[in-house]
Fold this sequence. Notes:
Layout: E1 23-27, E2 45-46, E3 52-56, E4 61-65, E5 73-77, E6 91-97, E7 102-107, E8 112-117, E9 120-126, E10 130-135, E11 140-145, E12 150-155, E13 164-168, E14 182-187, E15 193-197, E16 202-206, E17 214-218, E18 232-237, E19 242-247, E20 252-257, E21 264-268, E22 282-287, E23 293-297, E24 302-306
Antiparallel strand pairs: 1-24, 2-3, 3-4, 4-5, 6-7, 7-8, 8-9, 10-11, 11-12, 12-13, 14-15, 15-16, 16-17, 18-19, 19-20, 20-21, 22-23, 23-24
NHL repeats: 278-309
Keywords: Glycoprotein, Repeat, Signal
InterPro entries: 6-blade_b-propeller_TolB-like, NHL_repeat
Amino acid sequence: MADQSICPPMKNKINLKWKQNAITVAGGNGEGQQLNQLHWPDGIFIDEKKNIFIPDSNNHRIVEWKYNAKEGQIIAGGNREGDQMDQLSYPTDLIVDQQSHSIIIADFSNTRVIQWLNQTQQILIDNVFCWGLAIDKHGFLYVSNWNKNEVRRWKVGEYNDKGIVVAGGNGQGNQLNQFHAPRSIFVDEDQSVYVSDESNHRVMKWRKDAKEGIIVAGGNGQGSNLDQLSNPRGVIVDYLGQIYVADAANNRVMRWCEGKEEGEIVVGGNGSGYQSNQLNHPHGLSFDDEGNLYVADVANHRIQKFELIS
Length: 310
């Protein structure tokens, strides 16, 4: 998602901790399609005003929840599932350009990346099973192709070619130059690409121009030990290179430091459930400018906010 780096208040701080009981800031009113409900919200984007933008996947729409709002408003899709220009089909991620007010959407089941600007739509990239999106400070758009096990990048505004492979692209597998179902992506200041390699139960880091990646989280088989992940989804990295992972099937968010043999539980990890200290298949992760942690608690159909305490 756009400008994914954690914001300045968190810079140069280690061992940050969050309250373990979250506040529900969007959804949480059961599975549904009313404006106060969500159905499988896959990702999150938080803007500078703490408004929350959500790919409400199974409702085939993008919803914006204003800060402290009791319900959201539909800003893209919401016209039933379909492949027409004003429709979406299982959107999974988005980037919000706060200057132009445009939204770039990973329209997963329509195999396209589509831009919405004031209810006018434009297909940017077609024939791509795009799960995750990211944009860097140099104006490059990164797209994870779940089906082809690769990440490609395009210069923003120049989508006529096939893009450049920057990670994977060597078929499905578990070698260091391969992925098996890449999902979320994050790009840091050095244009290194972090990828949640879901079916390999690991997070990979591909430095710029690298021919293979390195394992920075998980990679020790599927499991719930501190050196393991199970179906990782959302990934975000702070200024110190600490990696936060939505460890979906373990119902927890983990923090890993590159080079360490195991991670630590940040929030969740209290079993699958609906209580304020529990998660049920967390996906998207985001931070606001105060360092509060937001989690797309997918199977609970809500967005959870964990407040920073140190």
